[in-house]
From TrEMBL:
<dbReference type="GO" id="GO:0008422">
    <property type="term" value="F:beta-glucosidase activity"/>
</dbReference>
<dbReference type="GO" id="GO:0005975">
    <property type="term" value="P:carbohydrate metabolic process"/>
</dbReference>
<dbReference type="InterPro" id="IPR001360">
    <property type="entry name" value="Glyco_hydro_1"/>
</dbReference>
<feature type="signal peptide">
    <location>
        <begin position="1"/>
        <end position="16"/>
    </location>
</feature>
<comment type="similarity">
    <text>Belongs to the glycosyl hydrolase 1 family.</text>
</comment>
<dbReference type="Pfam" id="PF00232">
    <property type="entry name" value="Glyco_hydro_1"/>
</dbReference>
<protein>
    <submittedName>
        <fullName>(apollo) hypothetical protein</fullName>
    </submittedName>
</protein>
<keyword id="KW-0326">Glycosidase</keyword>
<keyword id="KW-0732">Signal</keyword>
<keyword id="KW-0378">Hydrolase</keyword>
Length: 90
C-alpha cells in the first residue's frame, strides 16, 4: 500500500509542477517495474509494481495494487483513481 500512496502523491506533485509552475513534463517512467536486488537490502526490500517470487525458478511476477493503480492512471488519463476503486495490496 505504501507504493500506491507514494505513486498517487508523486502524480499529484507532477500535476502541480505542470499547472502551477509551468514545468513542461512530457514523459513519466515508473522507477522500478519489478522487485529487484538492492545493494543494502538484497532481495528483502520489495517495492516494484510487480512482486517477483524469487523462490520460483521462473520468477513469477504478480501485479501489486500500485501496478493496478498505474494501469488505471494510464487508461483514464487521471491520477485521481484511487478514490474510485478499491486497491488491495497483493
Amino acid at each position: 500500500m505504501v507504493t500506491l500512496v507514494f505513486n498517487s502523491c508523486l502524480f499529484q506533485q507532477v500535476w502541480l509542477a505542470i499547472t502551477e509552475d509551468g514545468v513542461n513534463v512530457t514523459r513519466y517512467t515508473a522507477w522500478t517495474l519489478v522487485d529487484n536486488f538492492e545493494w543494502f537490502d538484497g532481495y528483502t526490500t520489495k517495492f516494484g509494481l510487480y512482486e517477483v517470487d524469487f523462490e520460483d525458478p521462473k520468477r513469477k511476477r504478480t501485479p501489486r495494487a500500485s501496478a493496478k493503480y498505474y494501469k488505471e492512471v494510464i487508461r483514464t488519463h487521471t491520477f485521481d483513481v484511487a478514490n474510485k476503486n478499491n486497491y488491495d495490496e497483493l
